[in-house]
Here is the input.
Amino acid sequence: MMKGDPMSETIEDVSALIVNKLLANPKVPRDINGSSKIVEDLAFDSLAVMNFVMEIEDEMDVSVPLDRLADIRTVDDLATCIVSLKNGG
Amino acid sequence: MSIFDKFRTVEQRLALLTAGGGRNPFDVMIERPVSSTVGIIEGRETLLFGTNNYLGLSQSQRAIDAAIDAVRARGVGTTGSRIANGTQSVHRELEQRIASFFGQKHCMVFSTGYQANLGMISTLAGKDDYLILDADSHASIYDASRLGHAQVIRFKHNDPDDLHKRLRRLEGTPGAKLVVVEGIYSMTGNVAPLKEMAAIKRETGATLLVDEAHSFGVLGPTGRGVAEAEGVEADVDFIVGTFSKSLGTVGGYCVSNHDEIDLVRLQCRPYMFTASLPPEVIAATMAALDDMVAQPELRTQLSQNAAQFHAGLKGLGLNVSQQVSPVVAVTLETVEEAIALWNRLLDLGLYVNLSLPPATPDHRPLLRCSVMASHTSAQIARAVEIFAEAGASLG
Ligand SMILES: Cc1ncc(COP(=O)(O)O)c(C=O)c1O
Here is the structure.
């Protein structure tokens, strides 16, 4: 995966990266995957979600507008959103 | 399924807070103020170190007299909005006073500082624009982002490089970019690196709004806030603030050199659809401003007091904010520890604010203290002593 080249980053890649980042936090359950729900399964409050997304933003060199977060439930949703933002939408 | 189901979480959290027989921290009553620095709480004289009353002007004799005169002359309320029957000569006069204090052309006065942020930010940043917020912004700024229709992007707290990165990512996208920062952050007392942020604003062509709620009357050679202290007032498009802290009354304002302010008045819902400030509040506010201007030594005293209190708590080995400002936050590791200490401080006659996550920046609880110009050196020493006694009694 070449960082910065939008075409080389698939939703699966980004989703895996997010799961890895999440697992770095010892409080997060070990059995998470792309379909884990961020609020329900990870017990994140709204601030924790925003702060976590900020870490991913750094990694992916993208800014996710807060209103987009409203539609995001699972790790895969977040990955889809980031890939779409990186491709200009 | 009841409409109240969603309140069960907060009910449980409240039950945990008070489980050990502790007080409800959100329900403290100051039975009456004895002075700006002492109030009666639970029947006892208690030192007030959590009131935001930075200059002690809530008890200004000049403001009290002015309010009484205004009430006698004009009655107690306006019963209307600024764009209907709620503008009296005193509202215009206050706007002119605040504008000229800041050396700016225009001022809009709001009924609270919360509404000033809510109104200005939601109205300025429109549907096709970007609103770029510091991650640790006050609730009024986050709420403004939800009332308005702009795309909202957060940058890392007080981090000019991160702000720059995010503005750079938006290069070439249509729409205005409104950057919002606070002068002194309300929870931690951190001061914004406004010089660097102003340079980024100039470079990227963004618009800059600074909320000086906690820095007005506190920082800068004449008390105009962080923008004045850092010499970047010319780069700040809008300064928002409140009368509810250093001036000791209530109300909010926005000052600006942009002539479009008069058009904002006609689009800004939190300005248009609420009653204007009552005349006695306006009179008291103008008198408190007179006090503040006439006594620059209040600011000097405040910064000395802040330094004494900050050094005192640091000397006890407490984890206090790095920057010295009148907001001195003590970070604790666990909520239980914070609740126990806060209760013990109040038992011993010291009132500070208990701030719990998620209202705190990093998931750790804070004992948020605020220092006043009117605290005596002996009161500050006593407050530090109470921290030491409370800490010792809790181990
Ligand atoms: C940073 C900040 N902005 C705005 C406000 C709102 O001020 P007011 O009390 O006038 O509504 C506050 C105070 O609560 C604040 O801390």
User: Anything to note?
Assistant: Residues B 112-114, 117, 138, 140, 182, 186, 211, 213-214, 242, 244, 252 surround pyridoxal-5'-phosphate (CB under 6 Å). The domain at 6-86 of chain A is CATH 1.10.1200.10 (Non-ribosomal Peptide Synthetase Peptidyl Carrier Protein; Chain A).
